[in-house]
Amino acid sequence: MSDLSGNPVEDKYTRNGKPLKSKMDRVKESVTILKKLQELGIPTNEPGYMITKQHLDEWIAGGDVWEGRVDFPRFQRRAEMVLPVRPDRVVSMTIFAPRK
């Protein structure tokens, strides 16, 4: 896409001429992560769950790439999460147990 003078115009689906992950894809991947946390026995009122959901909500709304750590102290676990914007990458969340 370009303006009247031929300069490229960015829209919410491209950045630097490269396609971005669609909002629908972001929603689907977010739901998958949240359901998996519930399957693992992490309740929706757990602070780590709520922090995860907050990051996912911001990412769905058009946020940039996010990589970080979410702690689940009640379960003595931590998670490393990556929220990509490129359509060829998927969300990842790896949960780690404490070292012995």
Polypeptide structure, described:
- Strands 3-4-5 form a three-stranded antiparallel beta sheet, with helices on one face.
- The protein has 100 residues and is of the alpha+beta class.
- The N and C termini lie far apart (55 Å).
- It has helices at 23-39, 47-60; strands at residues 14-15, 18-19, 66-72, 77-83, 92-96.
- The protein has one domain.
- The chain is elongated.
- 31% of the residues lie in helices and 23% in strands.
- It contains two helices and five strands.
Strand element count? 5
Number of domains: 1
State the distance separating the first and last CA atoms. 55 Å
Largest sheet: 3 strands, antiparallel
What are the secondary-structure elements, in order, as H or E? EEHHEEE
Number of helical elements: 2
Unreliable runs: none
Helix content: 25-40%
Mean pLDDT rating: 87
* Class of secondary structure makeup: alpha+beta
| Main sheet strand line-up | 3-4-5
Task: Please tell me how large the radius of gyration is.
Answer: 17 Å
User: What is the 3D form?
Assistant: elongated
Percent strand equals 15-25%
